[in-house]
């Protein structure tokens, strides 16, 4: 990228996910784009995860802002080369196909991920963050707190827990205790 652009202030690095456009660097880039500027992007999927989002961003930049786009990993998507109607048609067709492929790939990834999670659950594997254990220290702090001997904040400090974790463990502890009664 640096060999294509001479002024470093014209390079925007966006390391956030392409899932949405609430990305600080991307929004700044769009505000700075002017007519006939050239936007180099590494890959088409940087514009979004589904066909509609990709096409909407493409049209906003090429038609509303009237800037050019060059997609580095897909040389056919270079609006600076195709100024005639045939070139525009080819670019639009390639864009439609590639944005559809990007959406399909995203759908496949989600499906595979879901299948993997389901298979792991069937095998009894724990997914996610490990549960916070109900320790003797917690039970002691809980009893003191419930009897008004200490504040909830002090009980949290005794257990070395954040507020949400403490109350989640309290609920689980009370639910278990109520089941056993």
UniProtKB/TrEMBL annotation:
PROSITE patterns recorded: RECOMBINASES_3 (PS51736)
Gene3D superfamilies for the chain: Resolvase, N-terminal catalytic domain
An example molecular function term from Gene Ontology annotations: DNA strand exchange activity
Keyword terms of this UniProt record: DNA recombination, DNA-binding, Plasmid
Domain Resolvase/invertase-type recombinase catalytic: 1-124
Pfam hit, one: Resolvase
PANTHER family, per the entry: DNA-INVERTASE FROM LAMBDOID PROPHAGE, SERINE RECOMBINASE PINE-RELATED
Protein name (Swiss-Prot/TrEMBL): Resolvase/invertase-type recombinase catalytic domain-containing protein
Protein's organism: Bacillus thuringiensis subsp. israelensis
């Amino acid at each position: 990228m640096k060999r294509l652009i001479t002024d470093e202030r014209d390079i925007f690095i966006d390391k956030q996910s392409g899932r949405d456009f609430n990305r600080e660097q991307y929004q700044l880039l769009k505000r700075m784009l002017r007519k006939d500027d050239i936007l180099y992007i590494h890959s088409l999927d940087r514009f979004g995860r589904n066909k509609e989002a990709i096409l909407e961003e493409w049209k906003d930049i090429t038609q509303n802002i009237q800037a050019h786009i060059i997609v580095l990993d897909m040389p056919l998507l270079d609006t600076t080369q195709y100024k005639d109607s045939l070139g525009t048609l080819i670019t639009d067709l390639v864009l439609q196909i590639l944005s559809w492929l990007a959406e399909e790939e995203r759908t496949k990834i989600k499906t595979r991920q879901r299948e993997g999670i389901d298979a792991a659950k069937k095998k009894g594997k724990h997914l996610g963050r490990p549960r916070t254990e109900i320790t003797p220290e917690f039970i002691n702090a809980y009893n003191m707190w419930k009897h008004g001997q200490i504040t909830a904040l002090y009980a949290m400090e005794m257990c070395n827990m954040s507020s949400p974790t403490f109350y989640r463990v309290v609920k689980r502890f009370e639910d278990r205790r109520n089941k056993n009664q």
